[in-house]
Amino acid sequence: MIPREISGPQERFERSGAQALRDLRPMSTRVWGSLMSEFSGAMLSVGAGLMLLEPASVDLIVPAAIGYAALVLTRRVELPMRLPKSAGVADWNYPDPKNRAPRMAAGIIYLGRDVAGRELWITAEDGRQHATIPGTTGAGKTTAILGFVSNALTHASGFVLVDGKADHTLFDEVMALARRFGREDDVLHLNLLVASGNKESNSFNPFATGNADAIREMVVSQLGEQAANDSNGVFRSRAVALIGAVIPVLTWIRDHAGIPIDIEKIRDALELRVIWKLGVKGHYELRDPATGKIRDIPLDLPQDVVYPLLAYLGELPGYDTDLDYNKQKSDDPSKQHGYARFYFTEMFTQLGVSLGHIFKVEQGDIDMRDVVLNRRILVVSLPALENSSDTLAGLGKIVVTSLRGMMAQMLGMPKEMLGMEAPYHIVLDELAYYATSDLDRMMAQGRSLNIAFWLGFQEVSGIFARLGEKTYTLLGNANLTAAMRQQDANRTREWIEETSGKTDVAQATSFRGGDIGVYHDTRQADVRQVSRVNWRDLQSLIEGEAIMLFGGRRIYAKVFHAKVDKSGPKPLVRRLSLAAPARAELEAKLDAVHEIAANIENGMVAAGGREPMEPTLRAIYEAFRDAKANGGDRDACVDAAIRAAGEVPFVPGEERQGAAARLLVMLKSALHGTGGEAPGGVRPNEPFDKVLFEKIVEIEAAIGEDETAALERAATLVGKIEAAVKETVGTLPSRENREKLRADLAAITSMIAPNAEAEQQATPRRRVEASP
């Protein structure tokens, strides 16, 4: 057999770069670092062994061991990135921007461990500065992403996970993870896969909310980027102008007429007939999707909303604005309009037909604002194999543009509405399939909205093909990079090496051979500049391993793997869709609320005037005012008010009306409860006869009752009197009323008689005079 000739270097000839590196630190620095490391345990063990071998050395070794242990235990506690918040100590890797003093540990996002087993944490502030996760197929990006977003569930928060390759196991893993934390009801799935026949997905109407600009941008994003040499660019521009004129009208109709926007209404509104009716007649043509019947709704459209439609009609070649749309002199206007409308045909077919079970709804299960503000969990599965690259990118842009519109609505919100300290996570995996040019602005704004972006991709070249030079602007927004196994040696390698930077190392330059063929270092080293991340290290990583770049640090890490039990059924949670309330009803309720608020601010309890004062309150007010006018001091004014209140007789009044009556019921319920009679008997309602109450208390005290019992019996008695009077006031003296009154009087007499007999039999301690 002819042996194979290999000219290239084989393994036995290869030497890694680390074998040629030399440590130039002083010996004292190296020794001190070893003594303060895990090697300290070995040193103490050696000391213990010496004491066993030579007991006489105890007096020497024990003090030295105690001092050494104290030195080791009091050294700074540091981790490669941040200390966890539970440490409760100052973090020397977390300096204060004011004076670079160490701040208290605040790490709340766990990433994994380094090669030495030390934990890797980042703070909420670090998370809001975003992260990138580059890694080739099979590097473990999805597993790493699930581990990272599990932090959100420990914070009672949520996340949005957009998967560009639609891994069929991803939703099951997310559902299992949510079940582990009891969050199954918060999981939503936007499943855009239809080829398998499984159409299990929550519905989504991206046009239901947002202003006209946000909806217009969402529709225009489906047209894709215009090529530089597009010969039909004029028709594309007309299509953009068409949608820019129609969407504001539909938005006005949604907000003022209560007719929601969906993909079918946008499609119908682009017809020339509907545009003419809206612009000229002011009628909106509404089609019933169930029956197909059409009816015209007259509207009072503002001129500034209608004018763009009229301008569009006037700009159509050959269109005469003095004639109806179907009475034009030629069919050129209809053709020109058809060319512009043709640009949206693919979008309407994709969203209204293929994915009609998701998008053809008025009120969808998924509302991006609700998802973020209420910290829900949303998984988006994009069909990587079912659609072309442009269609896939368009579907992804719908999600990204919806997120951007949601973020625009959140600008200016109070900080309390943006949620807790922990950020809300948005993960865009396989970003190269659907990257948009506005992602860099979303990331720049996300920090102030308490949102953390995680960008996962295989190589930089895929993103560069869509965004061009803006790719580096996008990736430059991330402060953390978890680089996993790589193969692309072009733009990805350049980006990682440029991001990690270069460093100076001491490297051996030559070796000297011996007599028996053994080579020795000549102990000469040159200082050379090399990349801080070796490309061979990235290529040799296994699943779950990464090289993390954070704040100028380079950490060789093992990312956190959130292993959960995926067994059991994982049904999709279905929401109950309800129609939005009518705008008129909401405005009526808001008007009532505003009226009540204005009355409260103006000192008016009920609409229609001030509430009349109760006699007792009026007597207190007038007595206090007169005493103050006569020059009385504080005590004199208070005494006068108390005397005046005691002189007011108890007169049962009519039931109060209006807001005061509603508040009185609420206050009574809060004071006495609603679960029946109190254990101590019937209680009097405020206001009651204070003079009678004090006389009864005085009588009870005179017969030997303690203060607590006297107050209890007096309250019960006054309550029964009040109940009896209330039931008889305003009623006719019928036989039933007389019998009820006799029973009440008998009950009161039975309570007073024993007290009176006891008073007569007991030795009188003082004379009590009570007025009837």
TrEMBL record:
Location of the region described as Disordered in the Swiss-Prot/TrEMBL record: 752-772
This protein's name: Conjugal transfer protein TraG
Pfam family, one: TraG-D_C
SUPFAM superfamilies, per database record: P-loop containing nucleoside triphosphate hydrolases
Lineage, highest ranks first: Bacteria, Pseudomonadati, Pseudomonadota, Alphaproteobacteria, Hyphomicrobiales
Domain TraD/TraG TraM recognition site, first and last residues per copy: 423-520
